[in-house]
């Protein structure tokens, strides 16, 4: 949807009333101003920015929600596996000694 906005005194931009209602923009609300690669100005509410950030984190985590494991996570998992194997060997040895 394309609509006209007007710049008034002090560089203030008047956003059309129907857009303010649709986006629930109230007097005194702060908006985020961005420029895209083509130089177009984009106004976003903080709620929109928050939703975009949440989506980026969901995308980084992956579809299953587990995300990619770090080297540290892999090391911890390896150490836990080794500890379980060692405990099983110790129990088997102790059982043979009885």
From TrEMBL:
Q: Where do transmembrane segments lie in this chain?
A: none
Q: Which InterPro entries match?
A: SpoVT-AbrB_dom, SpoVT-AbrB_sf
Q: Which residues form a coiled coil?
A: none
- Domain SpoVT-AbrB span(s) in chain numbering: 5-49
Q: Could you tell me which Gene3D superfamilies the record lists for this protein?
A: 2.10.260.10
Question: Any idea which GO molecular function terms this record carries?
Answer: DNA binding
List, alphabetically, the NCBIfam families matched.
lp_hng_hel_AbrB (TIGR01439)
Q: What is this protein called?
A: AbrB family transcriptional regulator
Origin organism is Sphingomonas taxi
Task: Tell me the lineage of the source organism.
Answer: Bacteria, Pseudomonadati, Pseudomonadota, Alphaproteobacteria, Sphingomonadales
